Amino acid sequence: MMAMFRLFWLLLAGAAVALAMWAGTWPAEQCGPIPGGDLPERCSASNVRVLGVWPVIGLGVALVMPAAVAAAVMRISASWLAVAAYGVMPFVGIFNWWNYWGTLLCAIPLFLLGALFAFLQQLIATDDGAESAHESGQVTEQFPGSE
After folding, report:
1. Distance from C-alpha of 147 to C-alpha of 132, rounded to nearest angstrom
2. What CA–CA distance (Å, rounded) separates 23 from 60?
3. Which has the closest alpha carbon to 12: 80, 59, 65?
4. Is 85 helix (H, G, I), strand (E, B) or coil?
5. Lowest-confidence pick of 28-37, 76-85, 128-137
6. Where do the H-state alpha helices sit in 26-75?
7. What is the pLDDT of residue 133?
8. Residue % of the chain over a pLDDT of 90
9. In the chain, domain spans
10. Higher per-residue confidence, 95 vs 98
11. Rounded alpha-carbon distances, angstroms, from residue 51 to 13, 39, 55, 136
12. In angstroms, rounded to a whole number, what is the distance separating the alpha carbons of residues 140 and 147?
């Protein structure tokens, strides 16, 4: 069952890469200098063309790392930490809405999906733990009338 959650987190990391690449194609909000570009072209160019590739790579790393760590560690606490990281990113995006890091607002769907994955992971792990404790005889409490 945990292999399924590892796959979910890896798919979420793949979605984060796709979001970062997509954000690189958005029109730049800053009219930066493009070597050899005309003035009208500068303001309608993509983020990658105006800012370069490194901000897109930085955004990709910031969006991928929480899901990648959760997939590698496969602990419920790591999953909830990934959700917390995705929850902080939109606030960073709100406070930086005027520059490229405002694109961290695209972490909202990652936050929602991550919260769903972490909740399901915790729910299934709790059910598996209770079931295995009952099977091993560690559960001694019996309900009235269930003798």
Report:
1. 20
2. 9
3. 65
4. helix
5. 128-137
6. 39-44, 47-51, 54-73
7. 47
8. 47
9. 2-132
10. 95
11. 24, 15, 7, 59
12. 12
